Amino acid sequence: MAATTPRGTPEGDGADSVIVVRDLHVRRARTPVLHGLSLTVQRGRIVGLLGPSGSGKTTLMRSIVGVQVVQSGTVEVLGLPAGSRELRRRVAYVTQQPSVYDDLTVRQNLAYFARVLGVRRTKVDEAIARTHLGDVERRLAGSLSGGQRSRVSLAAALLGDAELLVLDEPTVGLDPVLRVELWELFHQLAGEGATLIVSSHVMDEAKRCDQLLLMRNGELLADASVASVLAATGTDDMETAFLTLIERATTPMTDEETSR
Amino acid sequence: MTPARTLATAGRVLSQIRHDPRTIGLLLVVPSLLIGLVAWIFTDTDVFATIGPAMIALFPFIVMFLVTSIATLRERRSGTLERLFSMPLGKGDFILGYALAFGLLAIFQTAIAVSWAVWVCGLEIEGSIWLLFAVAVSDALLGTALGLLASAFARTEFQVVQFMPVLVFPQILLGGIFLPRDQLPEVLQAIGDALPLSFAIDALTAVADGSEDAAWIWGKVLVIGAWIVGSIVLGSITLRRRTP
Protein backbone atom coordinates (compact mmCIF):
# COMPACT_ATOMS: atom_id res chain seq x y z
CA MET A 1 0.00 0.00 0.00
CA ALA A 2 2.77 2.46 -0.84
CA ALA A 3 0.77 4.97 -2.80
CA THR A 4 1.77 8.60 -2.82
CA THR A 5 -0.61 10.61 -0.71
CA PRO A 6 -0.42 14.29 -1.61
CA ARG A 7 -2.84 15.28 1.14
CA GLY A 8 -1.60 12.96 3.81
CA THR A 9 1.37 12.31 6.01
CA PRO A 10 4.05 9.79 5.02
CA GLU A 11 2.59 6.39 5.62
CA GLY A 12 3.81 3.96 8.19
CA ASP A 13 2.22 1.38 10.37
CA GLY A 14 -0.69 2.97 12.21
CA ALA A 15 -0.19 6.36 10.56
CA ASP A 16 -2.15 4.94 7.65
CA SER A 17 -5.25 4.48 9.72
CA VAL A 18 -7.47 7.47 9.20
CA ILE A 19 -10.17 6.30 11.58
CA VAL A 20 -9.86 3.96 14.53
CA VAL A 21 -13.04 3.30 16.50
CA ARG A 22 -12.84 1.14 19.62
CA ASP A 23 -15.81 -0.23 21.53
CA LEU A 24 -18.06 2.75 20.82
CA HIS A 25 -21.29 3.05 22.77
CA VAL A 26 -23.75 5.82 21.95
CA ARG A 27 -27.25 6.54 23.23
CA ARG A 28 -29.63 8.99 21.62
CA ALA A 29 -32.76 10.06 23.48
CA ARG A 30 -32.10 7.33 26.10
CA THR A 31 -32.14 4.59 23.48
CA PRO A 32 -28.85 2.78 22.84
CA VAL A 33 -27.97 3.33 19.18
CA LEU A 34 -24.44 1.95 18.93
CA HIS A 35 -23.38 -0.87 21.19
CA GLY A 36 -19.67 -1.56 21.23
CA LEU A 37 -18.66 -0.74 17.66
CA SER A 38 -15.03 -1.16 16.58
CA LEU A 39 -13.54 -0.50 13.16
CA THR A 40 -10.53 0.82 11.28
CA VAL A 41 -10.39 2.77 8.03
CA GLN A 42 -7.23 3.12 5.92
CA ARG A 43 -6.15 6.24 4.05
CA GLY A 44 -7.25 6.84 0.47
CA ARG A 45 -10.20 4.47 0.64
CA ILE A 46 -13.82 4.95 -0.20
CA VAL A 47 -15.76 3.33 2.59
CA GLY A 48 -19.41 2.53 2.06
CA LEU A 49 -21.47 2.68 5.22
CA LEU A 50 -24.59 0.71 4.44
CA GLY A 51 -27.63 -0.41 6.28
CA PRO A 52 -31.33 0.27 6.65
CA SER A 53 -32.64 3.53 8.12
CA GLY A 54 -32.26 3.56 11.86
CA SER A 55 -29.26 1.24 11.88
CA GLY A 56 -26.99 3.90 13.38
CA LYS A 57 -25.15 5.16 10.29
CA THR A 58 -25.68 8.83 11.01
CA THR A 59 -24.80 8.39 14.68
CA LEU A 60 -21.53 6.68 13.73
CA MET A 61 -20.73 9.49 11.29
CA ARG A 62 -21.52 12.15 13.87
CA SER A 63 -19.23 10.37 16.32
CA ILE A 64 -16.42 10.37 13.78
CA VAL A 65 -16.92 14.07 13.05
CA GLY A 66 -17.03 14.75 16.80
CA VAL A 67 -20.45 16.39 17.11
CA GLN A 68 -22.03 13.43 18.90
CA VAL A 69 -22.03 12.94 22.64
CA VAL A 70 -20.70 9.40 23.15
CA GLN A 71 -21.19 7.25 26.26
CA SER A 72 -17.98 5.23 26.11
CA GLY A 73 -15.29 4.00 23.76
CA THR A 74 -12.78 5.96 21.70
CA VAL A 75 -12.87 7.45 18.22
CA GLU A 76 -9.53 8.48 16.77
CA VAL A 77 -9.37 10.44 13.52
CA LEU A 78 -6.05 11.15 11.77
CA GLY A 79 -4.29 10.19 15.01
CA LEU A 80 -6.27 12.64 17.13
CA PRO A 81 -9.38 12.25 19.29
CA ALA A 82 -12.48 12.89 17.16
CA GLY A 83 -13.68 16.47 17.36
CA SER A 84 -10.23 17.92 18.16
CA ARG A 85 -9.83 21.55 17.22
CA GLU A 86 -7.17 20.73 14.61
CA LEU A 87 -9.48 18.25 12.88
CA ARG A 88 -12.07 20.92 12.14
CA ARG A 89 -10.14 21.93 9.04
CA ARG A 90 -8.98 18.42 8.09
CA VAL A 91 -12.36 16.69 8.25
CA ALA A 92 -15.37 17.76 6.18
CA TYR A 93 -18.89 16.69 7.05
CA VAL A 94 -22.00 16.72 4.89
CA THR A 95 -25.19 16.11 6.84
CA GLN A 96 -28.09 14.15 5.44
CA GLN A 97 -30.34 17.19 5.07
CA PRO A 98 -28.58 19.74 2.87
CA SER A 99 -27.16 22.13 5.46
CA VAL A 100 -27.00 25.33 3.44
CA TYR A 101 -28.65 28.73 3.80
CA ASP A 102 -31.81 28.81 1.68
CA ASP A 103 -31.86 32.59 1.65
CA LEU A 104 -28.36 32.92 0.19
CA THR A 105 -27.25 32.23 -3.37
CA VAL A 106 -25.13 29.17 -4.11
CA ARG A 107 -22.05 31.34 -4.43
CA GLN A 108 -22.78 33.31 -1.24
CA ASN A 109 -23.19 30.06 0.67
CA LEU A 110 -19.84 28.74 -0.51
CA ALA A 111 -18.10 32.10 -0.06
CA TYR A 112 -19.18 32.16 3.57
CA PHE A 113 -18.02 28.62 4.29
CA ALA A 114 -14.73 29.41 2.54
CA ARG A 115 -14.21 32.37 4.86
CA VAL A 116 -14.97 30.23 7.89
CA LEU A 117 -12.39 27.70 6.70
CA GLY A 118 -9.97 30.51 5.85
CA VAL A 119 -9.33 29.30 2.29
CA ARG A 120 -8.87 31.33 -0.87
CA ARG A 121 -11.83 32.54 -2.94
CA THR A 122 -10.65 30.50 -5.93
CA LYS A 123 -11.65 27.40 -3.97
CA VAL A 124 -15.26 28.49 -4.40
CA ASP A 125 -14.92 28.42 -8.19
CA GLU A 126 -13.27 25.00 -8.05
CA ALA A 127 -16.01 23.57 -5.83
CA ILE A 128 -18.74 24.98 -8.10
CA ALA A 129 -17.05 23.47 -11.16
CA ARG A 130 -16.55 20.07 -9.53
CA THR A 131 -20.20 19.79 -8.54
CA HIS A 132 -21.52 21.21 -11.86
CA LEU A 133 -23.35 24.07 -10.21
CA GLY A 134 -22.11 26.79 -12.58
CA ASP A 135 -25.55 27.33 -14.14
CA VAL A 136 -27.27 28.00 -10.85
CA GLU A 137 -24.53 29.70 -8.84
CA ARG A 138 -26.42 33.01 -8.66
CA ARG A 139 -29.71 31.47 -7.60
CA LEU A 140 -30.95 31.25 -4.03
CA ALA A 141 -30.28 27.81 -2.57
CA GLY A 142 -33.92 27.65 -1.43
CA SER A 143 -35.11 27.89 -5.03
CA LEU A 144 -33.09 24.88 -6.19
CA SER A 145 -34.24 21.28 -6.55
CA GLY A 146 -33.45 18.81 -3.78
CA GLY A 147 -30.62 17.27 -5.75
CA GLN A 148 -29.07 20.65 -6.51
CA ARG A 149 -29.25 21.71 -2.88
CA SER A 150 -27.52 18.56 -1.73
CA ARG A 151 -24.78 19.25 -4.28
CA VAL A 152 -24.33 22.74 -2.80
CA SER A 153 -23.96 21.06 0.57
CA LEU A 154 -21.38 18.71 -0.92
CA ALA A 155 -19.55 21.57 -2.65
CA ALA A 156 -19.09 23.23 0.75
CA ALA A 157 -17.28 20.10 1.93
CA LEU A 158 -14.84 20.31 -0.99
CA LEU A 159 -13.64 23.83 -0.16
CA GLY A 160 -11.00 22.95 2.41
CA ASP A 161 -9.19 20.03 0.71
CA ALA A 162 -10.15 17.89 3.69
CA GLU A 163 -8.22 14.67 4.30
CA LEU A 164 -11.38 12.91 5.46
CA LEU A 165 -14.83 13.50 3.98
CA VAL A 166 -17.81 12.18 5.88
CA LEU A 167 -20.82 12.19 3.57
CA ASP A 168 -24.24 11.21 4.89
CA GLU A 169 -26.39 9.90 2.02
CA PRO A 170 -24.98 12.30 -0.60
CA THR A 171 -26.64 10.57 -3.54
CA VAL A 172 -30.20 10.40 -2.22
CA GLY A 173 -32.72 11.89 -4.60
CA LEU A 174 -30.26 12.26 -7.46
CA ASP A 175 -30.97 11.00 -10.94
CA PRO A 176 -28.80 8.11 -12.20
CA VAL A 177 -26.60 10.31 -14.38
CA LEU A 178 -25.74 12.66 -11.54
CA ARG A 179 -25.19 9.74 -9.25
CA VAL A 180 -22.59 8.29 -11.59
CA GLU A 181 -20.93 11.70 -11.86
CA LEU A 182 -20.77 12.02 -8.11
CA TRP A 183 -19.19 8.59 -7.72
CA GLU A 184 -16.61 9.61 -10.31
CA LEU A 185 -15.91 12.68 -8.19
CA PHE A 186 -15.55 10.53 -5.08
CA HIS A 187 -13.01 8.31 -6.85
CA GLN A 188 -11.12 11.39 -8.05
CA LEU A 189 -10.94 12.68 -4.47
CA ALA A 190 -9.74 9.30 -3.22
CA GLY A 191 -7.15 9.32 -6.02
CA GLU A 192 -5.90 12.64 -4.66
CA GLY A 193 -5.35 10.94 -1.31
CA ALA A 194 -8.55 11.78 0.53
CA THR A 195 -10.48 9.20 2.50
CA LEU A 196 -14.25 9.12 2.11
CA ILE A 197 -16.99 7.62 4.21
CA VAL A 198 -20.19 7.52 2.22
CA SER A 199 -23.41 6.29 3.77
CA SER A 200 -26.29 4.95 1.76
CA HIS A 201 -29.28 2.72 2.15
CA VAL A 202 -29.14 1.82 -1.54
CA MET A 203 -27.26 -1.46 -1.61
CA ASP A 204 -26.11 -1.32 -5.24
CA GLU A 205 -23.99 1.75 -4.47
CA ALA A 206 -21.85 -0.58 -2.37
CA LYS A 207 -20.11 -1.97 -5.42
CA ARG A 208 -18.38 1.37 -5.97
CA CYS A 209 -16.64 1.28 -2.59
CA ASP A 210 -13.25 -0.12 -1.52
CA GLN A 211 -14.43 -1.14 1.92
CA LEU A 212 -17.90 -1.93 3.19
CA LEU A 213 -19.31 -1.43 6.62
CA LEU A 214 -22.68 -3.14 6.81
CA MET A 215 -24.72 -2.01 9.79
CA ARG A 216 -27.89 -3.24 11.38
CA ASN A 217 -29.42 -2.26 14.73
CA GLY A 218 -26.29 -0.44 15.81
CA GLU A 219 -23.98 -3.35 15.15
CA LEU A 220 -21.52 -4.13 12.41
CA LEU A 221 -22.61 -7.09 10.30
CA ALA A 222 -19.58 -6.89 8.06
CA ASP A 223 -16.35 -4.93 7.66
CA ALA A 224 -14.86 -6.20 4.43
CA SER A 225 -14.32 -5.60 0.74
CA VAL A 226 -17.15 -5.96 -1.77
CA ALA A 227 -15.56 -9.12 -3.20
CA SER A 228 -15.28 -10.82 0.18
CA VAL A 229 -18.85 -9.98 1.15
CA LEU A 230 -20.16 -11.40 -2.12
CA ALA A 231 -17.90 -14.46 -1.95
CA ALA A 232 -18.74 -15.22 1.65
CA THR A 233 -22.46 -15.08 0.97
CA GLY A 234 -22.25 -16.86 -2.37
CA THR A 235 -24.14 -14.28 -4.41
CA ASP A 236 -23.42 -11.42 -6.82
CA ASP A 237 -26.15 -9.18 -5.52
CA MET A 238 -25.54 -6.84 -2.60
CA GLU A 239 -29.16 -6.89 -1.43
CA THR A 240 -29.14 -10.69 -1.17
CA ALA A 241 -25.72 -10.65 0.47
CA PHE A 242 -26.99 -8.26 3.12
CA LEU A 243 -30.03 -10.41 3.84
CA THR A 244 -27.87 -13.52 4.09
CA LEU A 245 -25.60 -11.76 6.57
CA ILE A 246 -28.58 -10.73 8.69
CA GLU A 247 -29.73 -14.34 8.85
CA ARG A 248 -26.30 -15.49 9.92
CA ALA A 249 -25.62 -12.47 12.13
CA THR A 250 -23.65 -13.72 15.08
CA THR A 251 -20.16 -12.34 14.69
CA PRO A 252 -19.12 -9.61 12.27
CA MET A 253 -17.70 -10.90 9.01
CA THR A 254 -14.17 -9.84 8.06
CA ASP A 255 -11.84 -10.26 5.10
CA GLU A 256 -9.87 -13.02 6.89
CA GLU A 257 -12.92 -15.24 6.90
CA THR A 258 -12.83 -15.59 3.13
CA SER A 259 -9.05 -15.88 2.79
CA ARG A 260 -9.03 -18.84 5.16
CA MET B 1 -12.49 33.13 17.80
CA THR B 2 -11.13 35.48 15.13
CA PRO B 3 -12.37 38.87 13.90
CA ALA B 4 -12.36 37.57 10.31
CA ARG B 5 -14.77 34.73 11.11
CA THR B 6 -16.98 36.91 13.31
CA LEU B 7 -17.27 39.53 10.56
CA ALA B 8 -17.84 36.85 7.91
CA THR B 9 -20.73 35.55 10.01
CA ALA B 10 -22.19 39.03 10.55
CA GLY B 11 -21.91 39.72 6.80
CA ARG B 12 -23.57 36.43 5.98
CA VAL B 13 -26.50 37.11 8.35
CA LEU B 14 -26.98 40.56 6.78
CA SER B 15 -26.99 39.20 3.23
CA GLN B 16 -29.57 36.61 4.31
CA ILE B 17 -31.80 39.39 5.57
CA ARG B 18 -31.16 41.43 2.42
CA HIS B 19 -32.84 38.66 0.44
CA ASP B 20 -35.91 39.05 2.63
CA PRO B 21 -37.21 42.62 2.12
CA ARG B 22 -40.39 41.92 4.02
CA THR B 23 -38.48 41.16 7.21
CA ILE B 24 -36.47 44.35 6.79
CA GLY B 25 -39.70 46.29 6.38
CA LEU B 26 -41.30 44.73 9.43
CA LEU B 27 -38.17 45.16 11.50
CA LEU B 28 -37.79 48.83 10.70
CA VAL B 29 -41.41 49.93 10.64
CA VAL B 30 -43.38 47.86 13.16
CA PRO B 31 -42.06 49.49 16.37
CA SER B 32 -42.80 52.95 14.95
CA LEU B 33 -46.31 51.93 13.95
CA LEU B 34 -47.00 50.63 17.45
CA ILE B 35 -45.64 53.80 19.04
CA GLY B 36 -47.87 55.76 16.70
CA LEU B 37 -50.85 53.64 17.71
CA VAL B 38 -50.23 54.29 21.41
CA ALA B 39 -49.90 58.02 20.72
CA TRP B 40 -53.19 57.93 18.80
CA ILE B 41 -55.02 56.06 21.57
CA PHE B 42 -54.08 58.79 24.04
CA THR B 43 -54.58 61.73 21.66
CA ASP B 44 -57.12 63.52 23.88
CA THR B 45 -55.17 63.00 27.10
CA ASP B 46 -51.62 63.81 28.22
CA VAL B 47 -50.76 60.18 28.99
CA PHE B 48 -48.46 59.72 25.98
CA ALA B 49 -46.08 62.32 27.39
CA THR B 50 -45.61 60.02 30.40
CA ILE B 51 -45.56 56.57 28.79
CA GLY B 52 -44.15 57.53 25.38
CA PRO B 53 -40.52 57.04 26.47
CA ALA B 54 -41.39 53.62 27.87
CA MET B 55 -42.90 52.69 24.51
CA ILE B 56 -39.58 53.51 22.84
CA ALA B 57 -38.05 51.03 25.28
CA LEU B 58 -40.71 48.41 24.82
CA PHE B 59 -41.41 47.83 21.15
CA PRO B 60 -37.90 47.73 19.66
CA PHE B 61 -36.90 45.48 22.58
CA ILE B 62 -39.68 42.98 21.87
CA VAL B 63 -39.23 42.99 18.09
CA MET B 64 -35.47 42.46 18.31
CA PHE B 65 -35.90 39.71 20.89
CA LEU B 66 -38.33 37.80 18.68
CA VAL B 67 -36.42 38.13 15.44
CA THR B 68 -33.06 37.22 16.92
CA SER B 69 -34.26 34.23 18.90
CA ILE B 70 -35.92 32.70 15.86
CA ALA B 71 -33.05 33.41 13.45
CA THR B 72 -30.50 31.44 15.44
CA LEU B 73 -32.96 28.65 16.15
CA ARG B 74 -33.49 28.30 12.40
CA GLU B 75 -29.79 27.71 12.07
CA ARG B 76 -29.97 24.87 14.55
CA ARG B 77 -32.97 23.30 12.83
CA SER B 78 -31.54 23.50 9.31
CA GLY B 79 -28.34 21.65 10.23
CA THR B 80 -26.13 24.60 9.34
CA LEU B 81 -25.18 25.04 12.99
CA GLU B 82 -23.96 21.43 13.12
CA ARG B 83 -21.99 22.01 9.94
CA LEU B 84 -20.42 25.21 11.31
CA PHE B 85 -19.47 23.45 14.55
CA SER B 86 -17.68 20.76 12.58
CA MET B 87 -15.70 23.62 11.00
CA PRO B 88 -13.17 25.99 12.56
CA LEU B 89 -15.81 28.50 13.69
CA GLY B 90 -15.70 29.58 17.34
CA LYS B 91 -18.89 29.65 19.37
CA GLY B 92 -18.11 33.31 20.07
CA ASP B 93 -17.77 33.96 16.32
CA PHE B 94 -21.25 32.62 15.84
CA ILE B 95 -23.01 34.52 18.64
CA LEU B 96 -21.06 37.73 18.14
CA GLY B 97 -21.62 37.61 14.39
CA TYR B 98 -25.37 37.51 14.99
CA ALA B 99 -25.13 40.21 17.65
CA LEU B 100 -23.25 42.52 15.24
CA ALA B 101 -25.63 41.95 12.34
CA PHE B 102 -28.80 42.41 14.37
CA GLY B 103 -27.19 45.18 16.38
CA LEU B 104 -26.73 47.13 13.16
CA LEU B 105 -30.38 46.61 12.28
CA ALA B 106 -31.33 47.65 15.82
CA ILE B 107 -29.53 50.97 15.31
CA PHE B 108 -31.52 51.73 12.16
CA GLN B 109 -34.73 50.60 13.79
CA THR B 110 -34.15 52.79 16.83
CA ALA B 111 -33.26 55.82 14.74
CA ILE B 112 -36.57 55.50 12.94
CA ALA B 113 -38.58 54.82 16.10
CA VAL B 114 -37.06 57.74 18.03
CA SER B 115 -37.48 60.17 15.12
CA TRP B 116 -41.06 59.03 14.66
CA ALA B 117 -41.93 59.37 18.34
CA VAL B 118 -40.39 62.83 18.62
CA TRP B 119 -41.20 64.48 15.31
CA VAL B 120 -44.40 62.75 14.24
CA CYS B 121 -46.05 61.72 17.50
CA GLY B 122 -44.91 64.89 19.22
CA LEU B 123 -43.20 63.32 22.21
CA GLU B 124 -41.55 66.13 24.15
CA ILE B 125 -37.95 65.60 25.16
CA GLU B 126 -36.43 67.84 27.80
CA GLY B 127 -33.00 66.23 27.68
CA SER B 128 -30.65 65.57 24.77
CA ILE B 129 -32.10 63.77 21.75
CA TRP B 130 -28.72 62.06 21.26
CA LEU B 131 -28.84 60.68 24.76
CA LEU B 132 -32.35 59.42 24.08
CA PHE B 133 -31.06 57.73 20.96
CA ALA B 134 -28.11 56.16 22.79
CA VAL B 135 -30.34 54.69 25.49
CA ALA B 136 -32.84 53.43 22.92
CA VAL B 137 -30.08 51.70 20.92
CA SER B 138 -28.71 49.99 24.01
CA ASP B 139 -32.25 48.84 24.80
CA ALA B 140 -32.75 47.33 21.33
CA LEU B 141 -29.33 45.65 21.63
CA LEU B 142 -30.51 44.24 24.95
CA GLY B 143 -33.46 42.65 23.14
CA THR B 144 -31.03 41.18 20.60
CA ALA B 145 -28.73 39.77 23.27
CA LEU B 146 -31.53 38.24 25.33
CA GLY B 147 -32.96 36.75 22.14
CA LEU B 148 -29.61 35.10 21.42
CA LEU B 149 -29.50 33.75 24.96
CA ALA B 150 -33.05 32.39 24.73
CA SER B 151 -32.39 30.63 21.44
CA ALA B 152 -29.32 28.94 22.91
CA PHE B 153 -31.69 27.14 25.29
CA ALA B 154 -34.52 26.44 22.86
CA ARG B 155 -34.60 23.26 20.80
CA THR B 156 -37.80 23.85 18.84
CA GLU B 157 -39.88 26.72 17.47
CA PHE B 158 -42.51 26.02 20.12
CA GLN B 159 -39.97 26.42 22.90
CA VAL B 160 -38.49 29.64 21.57
CA VAL B 161 -41.93 31.23 21.32
CA GLN B 162 -42.56 30.28 24.96
CA PHE B 163 -39.43 32.14 26.00
CA MET B 164 -41.09 35.35 24.91
CA PRO B 165 -43.74 35.35 27.68
CA VAL B 166 -41.24 33.93 30.18
CA LEU B 167 -38.41 36.40 29.62
CA VAL B 168 -40.18 39.46 28.22
CA PHE B 169 -43.65 39.80 29.77
CA PRO B 170 -42.51 39.97 33.42
CA GLN B 171 -40.13 42.76 32.45
CA ILE B 172 -43.01 44.70 30.90
CA LEU B 173 -45.33 44.10 33.88
CA LEU B 174 -42.74 44.99 36.50
CA GLY B 175 -41.03 47.79 34.55
CA GLY B 176 -43.21 50.53 35.98
CA ILE B 177 -45.42 51.15 32.94
CA PHE B 178 -48.66 49.96 34.54
CA LEU B 179 -47.86 51.21 38.00
CA PRO B 180 -44.77 53.13 39.10
CA ARG B 181 -42.37 50.62 40.64
CA ASP B 182 -42.25 52.40 44.02
CA GLN B 183 -45.95 51.65 44.43
CA LEU B 184 -45.52 47.91 43.82
CA PRO B 185 -45.46 45.39 46.68
CA GLU B 186 -41.97 45.28 48.17
CA VAL B 187 -40.94 41.93 46.68
CA LEU B 188 -42.15 42.86 43.21
CA GLN B 189 -40.43 46.22 43.42
CA ALA B 190 -37.14 44.53 44.28
CA ILE B 191 -37.50 42.17 41.32
CA GLY B 192 -38.64 44.97 39.01
CA ASP B 193 -35.70 47.16 40.01
CA ALA B 194 -33.27 44.40 39.03
CA LEU B 195 -34.73 43.57 35.60
CA PRO B 196 -32.76 45.03 32.68
CA LEU B 197 -35.72 46.54 30.81
CA SER B 198 -36.48 48.67 33.91
CA PHE B 199 -33.13 50.41 33.53
CA ALA B 200 -33.98 51.30 29.92
CA ILE B 201 -37.46 52.53 30.83
CA ASP B 202 -36.08 54.64 33.72
CA ALA B 203 -33.32 56.12 31.57
CA LEU B 204 -35.60 56.97 28.65
CA THR B 205 -38.20 58.52 30.97
CA ALA B 206 -35.49 60.56 32.68
CA VAL B 207 -34.16 61.88 29.36
CA ALA B 208 -37.67 62.79 28.30
CA ASP B 209 -38.65 64.72 31.43
CA GLY B 210 -35.15 65.97 32.14
CA SER B 211 -35.33 64.80 35.76
CA GLU B 212 -31.80 63.38 35.94
CA ASP B 213 -28.39 64.44 34.65
CA ALA B 214 -26.40 62.72 31.92
CA ALA B 215 -24.11 60.90 34.36
CA TRP B 216 -27.07 59.19 36.02
CA ILE B 217 -28.42 58.15 32.64
CA TRP B 218 -25.07 56.80 31.43
CA GLY B 219 -24.97 54.80 34.66
CA LYS B 220 -28.18 53.07 33.58
CA VAL B 221 -26.79 52.50 30.08
CA LEU B 222 -23.75 50.89 31.66
CA VAL B 223 -25.95 48.39 33.50
CA ILE B 224 -27.80 47.60 30.27
CA GLY B 225 -24.41 47.12 28.60
CA ALA B 226 -23.40 44.66 31.31
CA TRP B 227 -26.60 42.67 30.68
CA ILE B 228 -25.84 42.64 26.95
CA VAL B 229 -22.28 41.39 27.42
CA GLY B 230 -23.40 38.88 30.05
CA SER B 231 -26.14 37.44 27.81
CA ILE B 232 -23.79 37.11 24.85
CA VAL B 233 -21.08 35.42 26.92
CA LEU B 234 -23.58 33.08 28.58
CA GLY B 235 -25.22 32.39 25.21
CA SER B 236 -21.94 31.32 23.64
CA ILE B 237 -20.89 29.23 26.66
CA THR B 238 -24.14 27.28 26.56
CA LEU B 239 -23.80 26.40 22.86
CA ARG B 240 -22.56 22.83 22.50
CA ARG B 241 -20.47 21.45 19.68
CA ARG B 242 -21.41 17.94 20.73
CA THR B 243 -25.10 17.21 21.03
CA PRO B 244 -26.86 14.07 22.29
UniProtKB/TrEMBL annotation, chain B:
The keyword NADP does not apply. It is found in: Cell membrane. One of its GO terms (molecular function) is ABC-type transporter activity. Residues 11-242 form the ABC transmembrane type-2 domain. The chain crosses the membrane at residues 24-42, 48-73, 94-117, 129-153, 160-179, 217-239. InterPro entries: ABC-2_transporter_component, ABC2_TM, ABC2_TM_bact-type, ABC_2_transport. It comes from the Bacteria. Belongs to the ABC-2 integral membrane protein family. PANTHER family: MEMBRANE COMPONENT OF ABC TRANSPORTER YHHJ-RELATED, TRANSPORT PERMEASE PROTEIN. This is Transport permease protein.
